[in-house]
Amino acid sequence: MSLGTIDRTPPPFFRQGPSALTKLAFFSALALFLMVADTRFEFARPLRAAIATVLLPVQRVLNVPVQLWQGGADYMRGLNAALASEKAAQAQLAQQAEKSARAERLERENERLRAMLELRPMLQVRSVAAEVLYEAADPFSRKLFIDRGATQGVVLGAPVIGPDGVLGQVTRLFPLSAQVTLLIDKEAAIPVLNSRTLARSAAFGGAGGDAMELRYMAANADVQVGDELMTSGVDGVYPSGLSVARVMAVERRAESGFARILLAPSASADGVRHVLVLEPMALQLPPREAPLPEPAVSETPGKPAKAGRR
Fold first, then answer.
1. What is the H or E stretch that residue 45 is in?
2. Which of 45, 112, 297, 303 sits between 20 and 30 A of 236, alpha carbons compared?
3. Long-range CB pairs of 152-155, under 8 A, 24+ apart, other chains included
4. How many beta carbons lie within 10 A of that of residue 139, not counting itself?
5. Cα angle vertex 289, ends 288, 291, to 5°?
C-alpha cells in the first residue's frame, strides 16, 4: 500500500472549531445583547426570582454558623460589660454608704455639740425646683431664665444651685419666671471659704471664658492649686458648705502685692436642665436690732448736755 493513499485528516474527535478570537467576539456580543435586552425588556427577572427563591434556604443554612459565632461573641462582650458595670456599681454603692454613714455620724455629733453649747439649731433651707428655659442672648453677660417666679415663692437674691454646686443668684424677678446671673458673669461675686485653710475671701466672675477669679489676695497668701472653695454663709444669702469652685492657677507677681488666682466653677450651666432655687438665709435669721443711741456727753462738768447747737 502506497503512502499516498493514507488519509491524513484528523479524526472528528480532534477536529478544531472556530478560533478562540471568534468565540470571544461571539460570546461578548451575546452577553452584551442579553444585558441590553434584560435592561429593556426584563425577560430574565422571573428566572432570577426563581433562582433566588431556590437558593434562599441554602443561604440561610450557610449563614447559621456565622450568626451563631457573632451572637456568641456579642453575648460574651455584653456579659463582660455587665459584670464590670456591676462591680463598679457595687463599689460606688459601698462608697456612698460609707459617705452616708459618715454624714449621719457628723450630723449627730454636730447636733450634740450645738446642744452642749446651747446654740440654736441649724436652719433648714427651703427650696423650689425649677427648669431652665433658655440662656440670655446678650454675649457680654452670662444669665439664664428659669420657669419659676414670684408666684411660686421665688424672691430676689435667692441662690440657685445645680447638681455640682452653686450656679448663681436670682437678679430679676417676674411673676412666672426669673433671671439668674451666673457666677461667671462679670457682675457676680460670692463670699467663699477655703476648705483647707478656712480662710475667707471673695470670688468674682468675669475672669474670661468660664473661669472665676479670687481677688484681693496677698501675694504670699496660702492658696494652692486644687483648693476647694465653698460658701462661707456669712453673707446671709448662701447656705454654708455649698461647693463653689476649685483653684486651677495661682500667679504670684513680684511687682504686685496681690496674687492672680483663677478658679474653675464647680457647677456649669452647659447641659443643666433642672436647678434648685434656695431661700436666702437672711429670711430665716432673726431681725437685726437697731443700735442704741449713744448718750450725750456734757461739755461742762455739772451741766446737762445740750440737745443741739444753733
1. helix 45-116
2. 112
3. 152/128, 153/128, 153/279, 154/128, 154/130, 154/178, 154/277, 155/279, 155/280, 155/283
4. 6
5. 125
**Residue position matching grid coordinates 502506497:** 2
* 51-69: pLDDT as tens digits: 888 888 888 888 888 888 8
Type of residue found at 116: M
Dist CA 85 CA 93 (whole Å) = 12
State the cell numbers at 265: 466653677
> CA–CA distance from 187 to each of 44, 215, 238 (Å)?
78, 13, 17
CB environment 146-170: b (16+ within 10 A), e (fewer)? bebbeebebeebbbbbbeebbbbbb
Cβ neighbours, 10 Å, residue 282:
13
**CA separation (Å) from 23 to 20, 28, 29, 59, 295?**
5, 8, 10, 34, 131
Q: Which residue has the cell 428566572?
A: 47
Residue owning grid cell 462591680: 87
* pLDDT computed for residue 307 by the predictor: 46
7 has a pLDDT exceeding 70: no
Interatomic CA distance for residues 156 and 281, integer angstroms: 12
CATH of span 127-283: 2.40.10.340
What would you measure as the largest C-alpha separation in the chain, in angstroms? 183
Residue 145: is its pLDDT beyond 50?
yes
- At 260 the three-state DSSP class reads strand
pLDDT in tens, 274-294: 899 988 887 766 666 666 666
List pLDDT tens digits, range 69-104. Answer: 888 888 888 888 998 898 899 888 888 888 888 888
Integer Cα distance of 212 and 26 in angstroms:
83
